[in-house]
Amino acid sequence: MKPLPHIVLATFGTHGDLHPFMALALALQRHGARVTLAAASEYREKVEAEGLTFARMRPDMQAVIDRLGLDEHELTLRIARQPQFLLTHIVMPALRDAYEDIMAISADADALVTHSVAYGAKLAAEKRGLPDFSIALQPMVFWSAYDPPIIANAERLSRWVYRRGPTLTRAFIDLGKRVSRRWARPIDALRHVLDLPPADAHPLFEGAFSDDGVLALYSSLFGAPQPDHTAHTDIVGFAFHDGERGVPATLDADTQRFLDAGPPPLVFTQGTSAVHDAEIFVRESLAAVRTLGTRTVFVLDDERVARWAAGDRNWWYRIWSTSPTTRRAWNAWASAVHGRDTGTAPIRPPSRSAPCSRMTP
Predict the structure, then answer these.
(1) Residue 141 located in a structural domain
(2) Which residue spans adopt a coiled-coil conformation according to this UniProt entry (predicted)?
(3) How far is residue 116's CA from residue 350's CA, in Å, rounded to a whole number?
(4) In whole angstroms, what is the distance from residue 319 CA to residue 322 CA?
(5) 272 and 202 in one domain?
(6) Structural domain count, the chain
(7) Of 174, 204, 235, which marks where a domain is finished?
C-alpha cells in the first residue's frame, strides 16, 4: 500500500497567520495527506484540538516578549511603526532555531508549505531538496510596482512616489531592497554554514517565494494579479477556519439575544495584532455609528472594553470571543445603538476592509 504523502506546513505570527494554514492543513488531510503543522508552541492545543499533528517551530511568542521586555501592546506598536523590527528583533534571532525545528520533522516529508517569513523552514526545504510551496496572505508581500503598499514609516513619501507611476515606483522599491539587504545577513550567514549556494534573489523580497509555486490566500478583490508577481502565483481566495477546541465557535446567550432583537448590526473587528493599536479605530467607528444610529458590535480586547464601555454603560453587551494573542478568552463587547427593531441578525458579509499595518492591502 502506497504511504500517504507527508506535507509539512510552517507558519509564523498571530492567529491571522495560523488560521489560513489550519484551513489548508485540514483540507490536505481530507484529501488523504499526512499533515504536520509547525508553529509557535502557544498554538499546540488549538492545532491538536482539530485533529492535526502539531510541531513546534520557534520563536515562541512568549519567549520573544520575555526577551524584548515588551508586552503585546508595546510589541504591536513597535512593529507597526518600525516594520523592520519584526525581522531584526523577532524573526532573524530565531532563524537557526526555526531551521533546526523543521529539519527535525521533515526527514520523511514529501513537500513543505511555508509562510512568507518562515525563512528557516525555506532553508530546511532547500537543504533537503524538497518542493516548497509559498503562501502569501496579503498582496503587499509581493511589493508590486503596479500595486505597491504604503510604507508605515514613510507614508507621505510613498504616496507621492506611487502617484508618479510604476517606473518611479519600481526604482523606489529597488532602493528599499538595497537598504533592507543588510537585514537578511543572518540568512546569508546560515546559508554559508549549511553549504548552500549564495542566494541569487533578495531573501526578503522575490527570494521569499519558491519557484515551485505560490498560493495567494486572499481574494482578487483585495489584490489582482500583477505583471511583476512571482512566477507560478495563483490567487485562490481566502482559506477560512473558524473554530475553537475542535468545535465551531458559538456566541453566548446574551449576545445571541442581542442579535435576535433587531436587524443585522454593523460589526467592527480588527486583526489579532492590530487590536492592540485600536484607539483611533474605535474612536472614529463610535462617532460614525452614533451619527448613523445603527446597531453595532465591537470586538475589542480587555483594555479597550474597560476604557470605552465605561462612558456608555447602557450600550454595552458582552459577547463571546477567543483570545488569539493572550491564549485565553477575550472579554469582547457589543455596542447597541437604538436597537429597538425586531428580527434576526446573522453576522455575515458584505464587509469593508481598512488597511492597517501589514495586515491588509
Answers:
(1) yes
(2) none
(3) 28
(4) 10
(5) no
(6) 2
(7) 235
59-89 pLDDT tens trace = 999 999 999 999 887 888 888 788 799 999 9
- pLDDT confidence of residue 338: 30
Q: Taking the model in full, what pTM does it have? A: 0.84
Indicate if 57 and 84 belong to the same structural domain. Answer: yes
Nearest Cα to Cα of residue 311 among 341, 286, 348, 344: 286
Residue 51 inside a domain? The answer is: yes
Mean pLDDT of 198-215: 95
Look at phi and psi of residue 213 and say left if phi exceeds 0, alpha if psi is from -120 to 50, else beta: left
CA distance readout (Å), 332 to 18, 139, 343: 21, 29, 23
> 54 in helix, strand or coil?
strand
More confident position, 209 or 343: 209
Q: What single-letter amino acid sits at 70?
A: L
Kindly state the cell numbers that stand for 329. Answer: 478568552
Mean pLDDT, rounded, for 309-328: 41
